[in-house]
Write a structure and sequence with these properties.
The chain has eleven helices and eight strands. It has helices at 2-16, 23-39, 44-60, 69-84, 112-125, 140-153, 166-176, 194-208, 225-233, 252-262, 283-290, and strands spanning 100-105, 130-134, 157-158, 182-186, 212-218, 240-244, 265-270, 278-280. It is elongated and about 70 Å long. The chain binds guanosine-5'-diphosphate. Guanosine-5'-diphosphate binds next to α5.
Length: 292
């Protein structure tokens, strides 16, 4: 979060210097907003719409009596950023049946395996019994990685070290871990090619009929997060997105905005490598923190 907060702190400082809002000041603030959003890797069309909306509001609405102009500017910026990052409602993650099957997808290196364990830990702390299944047959290290993470947090685990058929592993995982409240199924992030990867996750989806499909995206891809989500969406519904590595890049702002535009809901953000470093994503709280 530091990189993104630092990026916005310049903009906030500029606004705090404003004594009254004339056209020149407004233009300068608009330019600073654009610079900030572009540096955060927000897609250009969203930056344009955002700035136009904010400028229009500031021109047309008068600050309520007694509110200093700078506070009014911050307020408009806050409101518009909340919209950009996904709107009012914090998205909830609520298992509604037992076992609640969660399918985790994402390209290799996105932080998918780590996020499986983080999500399991998050749910276990809230009283759910969580099982984990590894179906990656392409990268054998994934099996050991998730098994070790499962052991560390004390979650039942199913996987087949030398397994060849991801769909069968998923099926057997569901059969073997019947007693849990939530079952998290991790999938491969790399395959012979992208098409093969997407076909495989679709086949697992068809076989286990998950209650929630979660796509894990690395914040450092910034606005390209939308293209990643859309590629998966062609094959299966994406209910939830988790954006990882928000701690290490300012581009996470762009990733959040780009994903919000696809209509998928960001429910969590990853803010570190540790298994505890997963936060529910609440646009209001997030933007409030961003603006200091
Ligand atoms: P996978 O290939 O998608 O399963 O990715 P991994 O779970 O193996 O994660 C790839 C790398 O990203 C590892 O070094 C993780 O520790 C790291 N990582 C995952 N999530 C986060 C996060 O939120 N913040 C940071 N800084 N690193 C993360």
């Amino acid at each position: 979060m530091k990189a993104l907060t630092e990026l916005f702190s310049k903009l906030v400082e500029k606004i705090r210097d404003v004594e009254y809002i004339d056209e020149a000041t407004l233009q300068e603030i608009a330019r600073e907003i654009q610079r900030t959003l572009l540096k955060a890797d927000v897609p250009l069309d969203l930056v344009k719409t955002f700035t136009d909306n904010a400028v229009k509001r500031i021109r047309e609405e008068k600050p309520p009596a007694g509110i200093p102009p700078r506070e009014y500017l911050i307020y408009v910026l806050y409101e518009e950023l909340v919209k950009l990052m996904g709107g009012e409602q914090p998205a909830e993650f609520k298992p509604t049946k037992k076992p609640y099957i969660v399918l985790l997808l994402g390209v290799e290196g996105s932080g998918k395996t780590t996020t499986s364990a983080k999500l399991a830990r998050y749910l276990m702390k809230r009283g759910y019994k969580v099982g984990m299944v590894e179906t990656d047959t392409i990268r054998p290290a994934a099996f050991d990685q998730l098994r070790q993470l499962a052991e560390k947090i004390g979650a039942p685990f199913y996987g087949e070290r030398d397994g060849k058929d991801a769909v069968e592993i998923a099926r057997r995982g569901v059969a073997n871990l019947k007693g849990v409240d939530v079952l998290i199924i991790d999938t491969a992030g790399r395959h012979r090619n992208e098409e093969a990867l997407l076909q495989e996750v679709k086949a697992i989806y068809d076989a286990v009929n998950p209650d929630e499909v979660v796509l894990v995206v690395d914040a450092t891809v910034g606005k390209l997060a939308a293209a990643q989500a859309e590629a998966f969406m062609k094959y299966l519904p994406i209910h939830t997105v988790i954006i990882t590595k928000m701690d290490s890049t300012a581009r996470g702002g762009g990733a959040l905005a780009a994903v919000a535009k696809t209509g998928a809901r960001v429910k969590f953000i990853g803010v570190g490598e540790d298994v505890e470093e997963l936060e529910p994503f609440n646009p209001r709280k997030f933007v409030a923190r961003l603006l200091g």
